[in-house]
Amino acid sequence: MDKLLVTIGGICVAGLIYWFFFGKRDEAVVVASEKVDILVDGGYKPSVIKIKKGQKITISLIRKDTNSCLEEFVLPDFKISKHLPLNQKIEIEITPNEAGEFPFHCGMNMFRGRIIVE
Amino acid sequence: MGTVKKSLPIIGMHCTSCAKLIEKKLNKTSGVISSNVNYASEIATVEVENHVKDEDLARVVADAGYKIGTNIEEEKKKELQSLKVKVIVSSILSFFVFIGSFPEWFSFIPNFLANPIFLLLLSSPVQFWAGRQFYLATWSGLKNRAASMDTLIAIGTTAAYGYSILSILGITSGTYFDTAAVIITLILLGRFLEAKAKSHTSDAIKKLLGLRVKTARVLRGDKEIDLPIEEVKVGDLIRVRPGEKVPTDGEVTEGQSSIDESMVTGESIPVGKFKGDTVIGATLNKNGSFVFRATKVGKDTMLAQIVEMVAAAQSSRAPIQRLADSVSSYFVPAVLMLSVFTFTVWFDLGEPIRALINMVAVLIIACPCAMGLATPTAIMVGTGKGAEKGILIKDAEALETAHKIKTIIFDKTGTLTIGRPIVTDVSGEKILEIVGSLEQGSEHTLAEAILNRIKEKGIKLSKVSEFKAYPGVGIGGVVNGKKYFFGNRGEKNEIIKRLESEGKTVMLLESGEKILGYVAVADVLKEGVREVVGKLERKGIESWMVTGDNERTAKAIAMQAGIKNVLAEVLPQEKASKVKELKEKYGVVAFAGDGINDAPALAASDVGIAMGTGTDVAIESAGITLLNRDIRSVITAYNLSRATFDVVKQNLIWAFGYNVILIPAAALGYLNPMIAAFAMAASSISVVLNSLRLKSIKI
What we know:
- The complex is a heterodimer.
- Chain A is an alpha/beta fold.
- Chain A has one helix at about 1-20, and strands at about 30, 35-40, 45, 50, 55-65, 70-75, 80-85, 90-95, 100-105, 110-115.
- In chain A, a hairpin with a 5-residue loop joins strand 9 and strand 10.
- The mean pLDDT of chain A is about 85.
- Chain B contains 25 helices and 26 strands.
- In chain B, helix 10 (about 300-315) runs antiparallel to helix 13.
- Chain B starts with a strand and ends in a 7-residue tail after the last helix.
- Classes of the chains: A alpha/beta, B alpha+beta.
């Protein structure tokens, strides 16, 4: 009886894990013009930013999360990697000259977001 | 109301009076009890009432014309320090928990130490104080439906800790406080060592920044005053004495010296500097004293640009990393699911205790960190090492592609050759004296070559009269009462034909109808070209030469260089399309050249290699810039690329192999969770250490 319960429970938990992490709905897209604030807390909020091609934009990051993975902010296509001290604003300026999707992520690439340039 | 002390890094101070000014402004601000601004450490220590916010202070400082910065190095140090404290405290606690958990092995310990309640008391601070960061990270991750490394550790240790509490309550049997405590301690120790090792991956930048000069001796009227470097402006005249560093970039206006530029360009031989020559900031003046006019200051200097470029390259992503990137996004949830299955299967096999232990082992052994660190750490060390050798790498992609090249196209002038003609053959010293006398007023590049040779030989020149230039043909005049013509009217004899077949330009000295002798000039190969071509060939890389010169000259130079493939009479604007043609035929193609003319070709190739400081355009279009202008650095760059990506591959194989082998081993019950924690900490550290190995590799 125990075994049956554990088996059913195990399958349910595994299914729950799958749904919880992979069944995520699409994140809300934030359209930004000159400046965008990103809160770094268990991920990036917002994690999808839409901006216009050729326009300079300031990304202001503030990390509220102690997770050591999130210490580093990496935007590889713009060759940016910044150390984010806890609770301090760090600003990054970029001027995308090409349209496309440019991912950003934490130091070990477990938390992700992207910048959509149109 | 209470007060707090804050220390704020200040940016933009350049003298002690600035510090005083900020201090005065801060002291006038309401809520500020006292303030002290240290100019040397660039830190303001402010005691304020609790309600005063950092932003208020920032505004005051900004009003005074300065900025509050973020001292990232300082922050990192603080974080490292607090991690160290946690490691030490939890090591001590875990040690006692461990021996207390195995009274049968450590029979000498007093009885109370083996008491489960006592073990609970000892391990709780480890679990919730030292391990607090794992919980916080897990919680903030779950809020966003994301999981990380910390999630695995938090769940794994909580399972062991929670199970032990149930045992104390009599619901289950056996305690595993030791497992939870030792895991947390080992992971924290691993993080501490990893952070220490990682800080060395950016040593190259720190070294470059350390080269900056702090003051300059500026000429003001007839006085010389020492000014902080931030106050030096473009156009200032600066004196540099023997043994001093050149404070900024500029142009020599007075005096001469030789300068050791190795720290910036990697060029090991000191370079002679005369009036009109450019000098680079942070290089070392050897023996002479000179004055130069500053042409670039602050972030425009070559050193500042190099630092910026190296930092940018270190942050870029190598294409090889993509695989690791896509794996890591599924990794943690997959491990979580696997741990659930591990528990279920072992439980169903009738082994509830082993089910728990193996589940914890699976959670702990999984190490996505090593995968995440494999490529970036190697790229950081590799690009840093390049910068030390005068090889500037634009991004990780260029570094990765460089060792895959199959074909390299060299531009002739300025890349393979020194870029200006020198005298190669003379029929006699007397000839040189007459020719030199005729040419002394001329500014033609050929005349320059001849006059340089005369200067080297120390030949005295005579006066010339009735000087006449025949455009396109030569020059004439009277020296010591005799009439001469020097040039080439199209005569050919055997010697001339031979010299011309070697790609040289031959000019004859005539008097009346009689040929008295000849001077041949040519743009000659740089030192080491043949050696480089030979080495490339042995590596299976085919060399090509492209030039605007005629076929004959081109072939002559190519033969000397040992290059078999020649593209002659190519107009500058055609170079890029030639590169594209070869790319289609031969695969990965590198182009080595310099100057604005080459920029399209540099950009069209898979790896553009720009020689020397060149122009900004060339550096922008090139993936690799050889600051020392030494063609042999092509080989060094290739070797660096190869060595870096060997390390990247080793790291990736190690990181993947580790997870692929050890996760199933843990699931099957072959790994104790404590051993797993040790292996997991060791695995990320070993990746970083393997990358640091690049520093000492000979390239």
